[in-house]
Amino acid sequence: MNILAIDTSAAPLTIATAVDQKIIAQALDVGMKSHSVKLMPAIDTVVKQTGFKQSDIDRIIVAQGPGSFTGIRLAVTTAKMLAWTLDAQLVGVSSLAVLARNVRDFSGCIVPFFDARNGNVFAGVYQEDAAGDLQNVLQDSHIALLDLLAELQKLHQPLCFIGQGMDVYRNQILATYPDAKIVEDNIPTGQSLVDIGFKSPIVEDIDQFVPEYLRQTQAEMLWAQKQSTEVLKNNNYIQDV
Amino acid sequence: MSDVLILAFESSCDETSVAVVKNGREVLSNIIATQIKSHQRFGGVVPEVASRHHVEQIIHCTKLALKEAQVDYQDLAAVAVTYGPGLVGSLLIGLMAAKAISWAHDLPLIGVNHLAGHIYAANLVAEIKYPALALVVSGGHTELVYVKAAGEFEILGDTRDDAVGEAYDKVGRMLGISYPAGKTIDQWAHEGKDTYNFPRAMLHENNLNFSFSGIKSAVINTLHHAEQVGISINKKDVATSFQNDILDILLAKTQKALHKYPVQQLIVAGGVAANSGLRERLQQELANQVELIFPPLRLCGDNAAMIGAYAYIKYQKNQFASLTLNADPSLDFEYCNNNESLL
């Protein structure tokens, strides 16, 4: 199976091609230019390096979030459009699971996170099973770092943290878990993306595929607070005119 | 020469639209999914909400546009997309979608200025004769644009503060009309009397610029004052007075522009071009000196057909974009630099 994998959920950009789980070509970019400029040219370069024609792509794997709202929208829009127009399979994977997969040979709990500002993070907890596959222990969520650190206590496992925004949170993490392992290499690799996406379910309805924001917009939250449950049931907001 | 079919994307604000346009003149399909009902919850467009809706709608609209036009990718000559001006998060969705289709099927990509699109909606109902003058009036823009030749634009004047559609929405909110307020104010304006005589800003200034924040404040002050002293207000009279004020300004500046830049055609473009009061006044006062082109209502608001119409001009000039094309939220035309001296 010919795979194209895409992740722009945080500052790094990762594009990879693979045949089954074997990586053929990849582009990792941590430069400053925006993903909106780099994404499609990077896909073009990597796919051509691989020797694939566009129509050779059988499956597109995309990091679906959580992460930067704009970042995950760019990747998801590109991936769903490509999958639909090329008639390829689409697979959405957790951006946090991909980051966790960067950590190998660690038997405890892996805690991938992205800084969500104001002391909050997008985080989940993952652990390798006997077969070496990654299992989800605590669902991805938008959570205060302090609450996350408290939750982790209940797991009674050695901990490994990997994330974007480590500089902000390192001291807080080490204050609570002095023995925790901190992984600095936080660029999602093509191998991590493909390993997870190869075994994940295929999206049934590409049309309805959207990012996992894990956070409502501020405007919708404030609005919802003032509405009756009856009003909230209606979510028919878009009309073809 | 064979027909040039362009698949066009527009997502600059709160409408997701995909169209197929033939030779820049004929609309084969023009699918528009509007988010108005969603943003009505907040009294105006919330950018993050708009971006999210675009991702939900983009394939649905593309699918329908191709189906309705009965075309397949091999029939297409190019893919076009609005890359500015607009809300950056919204623009990016159309941009990514267009790039994906362009790359997947080896079709050239064309980046279109949204304002050029509004003006070229005219080409879908008539044939633009150059030089032409365009009055672009919408929720985000109020501009007099000189269209020297195909694809050559110069701004003769624009608004110093609010766009005209923005003034309508703000005054509408004060009158208790839900967003967007243009249609209701237009209707009320036909039923009331001009009793308030609000100030006509910049009417006699020797330039082609507009200002609408003063009149907006005047309306708000009038309503506040009435409330404080307990006089009842006839909202329809306020609407009539407000609309007359706006139309006087638009007409006077357009007259002035036509005088300095003689043209055969005046193109009225943008969402506010749907205003019936504006259409009536232009018809009464200018129809004898210039050919008026009003795109039909469906082509006045944001839509992808107009993007396909302008893309054809760029296609003919071989003005293609690369896959690095980025959104430019404040994209605009060049300003005419000898404007002031001509007046």
From TrEMBL, chain A:
Residues 33-222 form the Gcp-like domain. Its EC number is 2.3.1.234. Keywords: Acyltransferase, Transferase. InterPro entries: ATPase_NBD, Gcp-like_dom, T6A_TsaB. One of its GO terms (molecular function) is tRNA N(6)-L-threonylcarbamoyladenine synthase activity. CDD domains: ASKHA_NBD_TsaB. The keyword Transferase applies. PANTHER family: TRNA N6-ADENOSINE THREONYLCARBAMOYLTRANSFERASE, TRNA THREONYLCARBAMOYLADENOSINE BIOSYNTHESIS PROTEIN TSAB. This is tRNA (Adenosine(37)-N6)-threonylcarbamoyltransferase complex dimerization subunit type 1 TsaB. It comes from Bombilactobacillus thymidiniphilus.
Automatic annotation (TrEMBL), chain B:
Pfam families: TsaD. Its main location: cytoplasm. Substrate binds at residues 136-140, 169, 182, 186, 275. This is tRNA N6-adenosine threonylcarbamoyltransferase. It catalyses: L-threonylcarbamoyladenylate + adenosine(37) in tRNA = N(6)-L-threonylcarbamoyladenosine(37) in tRNA + AMP + H(+). Its cofactor is Fe(2+). It comes from the Bacteria. Its EC number is 2.3.1.234. It is found in: Cytoplasm. Belongs to the KAE1 / TsaD family. It comes from Bombilactobacillus thymidiniphilus. Binds 1 Fe(2+) ion per subunit. Keywords: Acyltransferase, Cytoplasm, Iron, Metal-binding, Transferase, tRNA processing. The keyword Cytoplasm applies. Fe cation binds at residues 114, 118, 302. GO terms for molecular function: tRNA N(6)-L-threonylcarbamoyladenine synthase activity. Residues 26-308 form the Gcp-like domain. Required for the formation of a threonylcarbamoyl group on adenosine at position 37 (t(6)A37) in tRNAs that read codons beginning with adenine. Is involved in the transfer of the threonylcarbamoyl moiety of threonylcarbamoyl-AMP (TC-AMP) to the N6 group of A37, together with TsaE and TsaB. TsaD likely plays a direct catalytic role in this reaction. The gene is tsaD. PANTHER family: TRNA N6-ADENOSINE THREONYLCARBAMOYLTRANSFERASE, TRNA N6-ADENOSINE THREONYLCARBAMOYLTRANSFERASE, MITOCHONDRIAL.
